[in-house]
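Model the whole thing, not chain by chain.
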Amino acid sequence: MRIAIASGKGGTGKTTIATSLALSLASQYETWYLDCDVEAPNGHLFLHPNFTDQVPAVIKIPQIQSDLCTLCGKCVDVCQFHALANIVKSIMVFPQLCHGCGSCTLNCPQQAIQEVDAPIGKLESGIAMAGIHFQHGMLSISEPMPTPVIRQLKRRVNPGKNVVVILDSPPGASCSVVETLRGVDYVLLVTEPTPFGIHDLYQMLGIVHDMNIPAGMIINRDGIGEKSMQSQFAEIPLPVLLRVPFDRKIASGIAAGKTLIEIDPKYQQVFSNLYQQIVNQLKVGNIC
Amino acid sequence: MIIIISAQEPNLEGAINERFGRCPFLIKIDTSNNQWEPFQNPGISQSGGAGVAAAQFVIDQKVNAVISGDFGPHAANALRASAIEMRLFSDNISTVQQALDAYKQESLLAFGQD
């Protein structure tokens, strides 16, 4: 079972939910936690992994072998990202625009393109609280392309039966979120009763609908905002699986690096139930 | 001499556009016979790599010089490697024709030399 936690708007509580959900399941299932927010990972601040493994995250950048290249320009034409230019005397490569898709290599009639690994970040893993298998990616500063790091991070997990993988998504509603969601069984959308929260929730609804992934909502900081927000939630065709109240005790606990379960032990049962609701929803069929 | 100027509108009397990669039109002018032709900038609709797309167009047109408000690092690298002269609009220029006249009078600053 792969569950992604996404939101659209940043700061709605994705990591708050993801860390506590992982903790609540760790005694029953082999549980993996993947922090896919590679531009600002923070799951480790709550789950305290002991990192024992580190590998570089790379992107495959084309390297043109000038002795074989006939300057036909086919690679320039097929590149959707304009990472190559035909500058008449040679082909110029722009590594920062390259998505590492391999189209140029595949389409070169002379096989004049070699792919070389360019490091853009790192992947770290280790065992965290309650025996959780913790993995996160970190994009290097000034590198613009988070998706290859997320792709490699996800490849490091090969879940067997009875394994639960929790994927903590980056904020926003763009490529890095789609990369995180690819192949998951369920998406938990964490939102808050503010116009910004609801606006971005609708963007995420479009994505999960297009990707055909079953989803449910969690309303965090419940109690803030105008009453009209609640009626707007009612119009969204997804089940509300949990409401977490706007509560000073929770806020100060999170600020001190505690998970919801450590702040209030009742959340152990709340999140176990939440997981069961997800399992039941998937049994009934897609609601999305 | 063939030059390209980044423009807001597809004619010589129209306004210039300061952005090379994202300007709506690139106007190609042959100074030997004053013939000109507007092209839609292929970079404008790209989600990324607009500068390179526009630079590739300019290179393919076999121009000698290109005039704009600024050039991004990727576009500048491609144009420089193709030995295409890059010039910048000065503050008193508002139309494509004015930019062309200023270029002929050699009063435009070269990019990367300020």
